[in-house]
Fold this protein.
Amino acid sequence: HRLSDRFPSEVLVWPVQVQGDKAAGLVANAIAGFNAMEDGERPDLLIVARGGGSIEDLWAFNEEVVVRAIAGSSIPVISAVGHETDTTLSDYAADRRAPTPTAAAEIAVPVRGELLAHVAQQGVRMQTALSRRVEQAAERLEAQRRLLADPRALVDQRGQRVDDLGERLG
């Protein structure tokens, strides 16, 4: 829900058991599975997430196999296990920690409207800078033009000199 509100994106979900004896291996296998995907299919980011619970409920995210899978991931990982006060070893192995799964979605995806506004603002800045550069170039060109003599005056002067020399020849 948070992702679709901010910036509709394609989301791949690899549902696994997140507590109990098998959970750590399943979480680690899911991380490895995403990393094994072909380049065109592989996600840009992994969010390893689970809602809150007791320390026992979150224990799978303290297991070595999960921590090593996160640390060894070639895909950046946001750890979003538990609630704000919960901390697991997965949080330390991840590239980024989020206090909740919802916060991980907010970190992962920009707000589309804000992004569009930023791009529009950058476009205006670019147009202003470009206009300023063109204006400065025009001013420099005008200054150079003023330094040059008027070509018609040069031709007229040479023509007058030819006339003068022509009269003296006679």
